[in-house]
Write a structure and sequence with these properties.
The protein is mainly alpha-helical. The protein has a domain of 41 residues. It is built from three helices and no strands. It is elongated. The N and C termini lie far apart (86 Å). InterPro entries: UVR_dom (IPR001943), UVR_dom_sf (IPR036876). One of its GO terms (molecular function) is nuclease activity. It holds the Pfam family UVR.
Length: 95
């Protein structure tokens, strides 16, 4: 039985009303395939298991650069002691 875009939209809305978001996602993906030129049979046989949306923060804001990852074994430098700020090396306050 081949489904049309209209019947898939109705199934998607019904699944969303019953909080079955996985079924609604499958219907949405089939609709997108059919709008892209796939037949109903091709959309039915398509595997959506590996598709997932990009996670926020995985890419730079508005760029194609990935988030920087420090090299293995790297530790951030120690923070300065706030009690020594404003002190010179000889123990005299700065002017």
């Amino acid at each position: 039985m081949s489904e049309t875009i209209e019947t898939l939209q109705h199934k998607m809305e019904a699944a969303a009303r019953t909080l079955d978001f996985e079924e609604a996602k499958r219907c949405r993906d089939k609709i997108n395939l059919m709008r892209g030129g796939a037949t109903a049979e091709e959309a039915e046989q398509a595997d959506f298991g590996g598709l997932e949306r990009q996670k926020p923060g995985a890419m730079g804001l508005g760029t194609s650069q990935q988030r920087m990852v420090p090299p293995s074994g790297w530790t951030p430098p120690a923070k300065p002691d706030p009690m020594t700020s404003g002190q010179s090396l000889r123990g005299k306050p700065r002017k």
